[in-house]
Amino acid sequence: AMPKIFTKTGDRGETGRFDGTRVPKNDPQMEVQGSIDECNSALGLARAYIEDEQLDSILKKFQSLLLVAGSDVTNVSHDERLPFITDSNITALEELIDEVEEELEPLTNFILPAGGKASGHLHVARAASCKVERRLVTLRETTEVNKTLLAYFNRLSDTLFVLARYAAKLSGNGDEIWTNPKMG
Question: Are 119 and 167 in contact (CB under 8 A)?
Answer without folding.
Answer: yes
